[in-house]
Design brief:
With about 350 residues, this protein is mainly beta. It has strands spanning about 5-10, 10-15, 15-20, 20, 25-30, 40-45, 50-55, 60-70, 70-75, 85-90, 95-100, 105-115, 115-120, 125-130, 140-145, 145-155, 160, 170-175, 180-185, 195-200, 205-210, 215-220, 225-235, 240-245, 250-255, 265-270, 275-280, 285-290, 290-295, 305-315, 320-325, 330-335. It has no helices and 32 strands. It has a 5-stranded mixed sheet, with no helix packed on it. It has a 5-stranded mixed sheet with strand order 2-29-28-27-26, with no helix packed on it.
């Protein structure tokens, strides 16, 4: 059995240096987001610098969109006059995973390739696609009368239910890497802390990511090195984590306590270098080489931005998320300044 190493990051920095260079970012305003729903956000960016987002449409609807520096936002459901659509992830080819919401409120997992939308044939009364890898494999969840089920959908083989952790009644898949490692969380409503993070593979099936942690655990991202990110939660606070499944080494990244005593942090996504993007106490954070950076301290002080949440970052270190620009909710992209 591999020895588990736990390290707490206690160092918070207002500025940053990396290999002797000052860590700074330029901010790109990606445009307005809906004030009505947190689903309206810039959630993912691929290594080509193209982002998946959910943008405002005819109020109160929102639409799945693809953003690029050449075209800006492309509304992927521009030909739909009713309902909404949500974009959650984008792969290198620009394929986007998400879901549609029809005029009656029915939600269906969907994939957009170029401007062509495919609704995934899944069981249940509702479904959601949460991530897509470069092979076009999609993970997410669908809702049945017996509970919610995590799935892996393959363009050739179709859908596969991933099972559940012992005692669970529902499971949700949130991310997949190129090797078909899937992460997410299961729900045991009878437990004091009902949420338990999982990792699934074809070889090993489903197992807990942090089996010895006594509180709730949720996995939200995984890279090709099988480094898993998310958050853990106890009765008083939540903390972002990075768990290296190969070495069983887990790093917890608690947020600084606020004056009110509240404390929460979440790691939403991780790139192939093991750098994570997230949020802490309603401020966007970067988790890099043993340090936590408030991203607001790494952008120009007169930018007018308050960066609220960082959702994903690519191999070049570009980060996307949600913030407030002069008091209005908007999407952002941060690009490292070399």
């Amino acid at each position: 059995m591999k020895r588990s190493t736990i390290i707490f990051f206690l160092l918070f920095v207002s500025g940053g240096t990396l290999a002797g260079q000052t860590l700074k970012y330029a901010v790109t305003d990606l445009g307005p987001l809906s004030e009505r729903t947190p689903l309206s956000a810039v959630r993912h960016i691929n290594d080509a610098g193209t982002a998946a987002a959910t943008i405002p449409a005819t109020d109160p609807n929102v639409r799945a969109a693809r953003w690029s520096s050449f075209l800006g936002f492309e509304d992927l459901a521009a030909d739909s006059s009713t309902g909404s659509s949500v974009a959650r992830s984008i792969n290198y080819a620009g394929d986007i995973a998400g879901w549609t919401v029809d005029a009656n409120g029915a939600e269906t997992a969907a994939v957009w390739r170029a401007q062509q939308m495919t609704l995934l044939a899944l069981p249940g009364t509702a479904s959601h696609a949460k991530d897509i890898n470069d092979s076009g494999q999609v993970v997410g969840d669908y809702v049945t009368a017996a509970g919610t089920r995590a799935f892996l959908w393959d363009p050739v083989a179709g859908a596969l239910e991933l099972g559940m952790l012992p005692g669970s009644t529902s499971c949700y898949a949130t991310a997949i890497n190129r090797y078909e490692d899937v992460v997410g969380y299961c729900v045991n409503p009878a437990a004091t802390f009902p949420l338990k993070a999982f990792i699934w593979s074809r070889q090993a099936g489903m197992r807990a990511v942090l089996p010895k942690f006594s509180g709730s655990t949720v996995a939200l991202g995984v890279n090709d090195l099988r480094q898993v990110v998310g958050y853990v939660q106890d009765k008083t606070s939540s903390s972002a984590f990075i768990c290296d499944m190969a070495s069983s080494r887990t790093v917890y990244m608690p947020a600084p306590r606020t004056r009110s005593g509240s404390q929460y942090s979440v790691a939403h996504g991780v790139n192939e270098a093991g750098t994570a993007a997230g949020e802490a106490n309603a401020r966007a954070y970067l988790y890099l080489q043993g340090k936590q950076y408030d991203l607001n301290s790494l952008i120009p002080g007169d930018s007018g931005w308050t960066l609220v949440a960082a959702y994903h970052l690519n191999a070049a270190g570009q980060i996307v998320g949600v913030g407030n620009l002069n008091g209005r909710r908007r999407g952002f992209m941060l690009t490292p300044v070399r």
